[in-house]
Amino acid sequence: MDINHHGLTLLIGGKLYLAPLSGEISMSPVTNECIGIWAIDFADQFPKASVIGTDIAPIQTTWVPPNLEFQIDDSTKEWTFREASLDYVHARWLVGAIQDWTALFKEAYKSLKPGGYLESYEPASRIESDDGTVTNSTALCQWGKIFIEGGRKLGRPFTVYEDGIQGKAMEEAGFADIEERNFKTPVGQWPRDASDREVGVYMQLAFEQDVEGTVLFMATTLGWTRNEVSVFLAHFWKEIRSRKIHAFFRQKVVWGRKPTSL
């Protein structure tokens, strides 16, 4: 996730957020994510803010800025923050972890001060190409099918990007001035542009770090054998390292503001 964070930061121009935050962030921004490095970077950028990072597992480093606190919490439950106490809520890569996105964003809405922002980052499940090098017969193409079908079986959608769930859920939760940005995220060393290639290298590394455990869980949920998973992974690793396959996946950043008057 640290590698993925770096790749995503490069993708959005070296920024940590895209919402139009003022320089007066001062009270408890919260990050609901399975990564601590974003919260550390944000706390460094806003030294006067009280930053709270939440996760369901104690996997974060203990070396943190003095204005950052990590808490063990489940963002799918009722939030424990005081009503209207937060200036900003940042959530990223929760795909597969959330059953009811509207309920999640309603908790964010309740916890935000009027005028505060919620910002959500989520990837598409499908890996594709513009030139047909990711074909239906490739493991890269099959990747998305595994997670989409597995997510349906588990009741946790992996089509957050594809179905526009972020924007719809924000609107249903009551947010206004909703905006979004879409990004193509290259995977691998194939891009000619140096900036795109750097993103692609980091995203390839991110995939390679955790692909076996991630695929094994989902594929066995769908009834695959361990041998079938091993064969799939062998093809996946070969394809993701090939400069002849121009793979990418899409990501969407959506932010919305809690109205100052109702």
UniProtKB/TrEMBL annotation:
GO molecular function: methyltransferase activity
Transmembrane segments: none
CDD domains: AdoMet_MTases
Keyword field: Methyltransferase, Transferase
A Pfam family the protein falls into: Methyltransf_23
GO biological process, one term: methylation
Organism superkingdom: Eukaryota
PANTHER family: ABC TRANSMEMBRANE TYPE-1 DOMAIN-CONTAINING PROTEIN-RELATED (PTHR43591:SF10), METHYLTRANSFERASE (PTHR43591)
Family label: Belongs to the methyltransferase superfamily. LaeA methyltransferase family.
Record's protein name: S-adenosyl-L-methionine-dependent methyltransferase
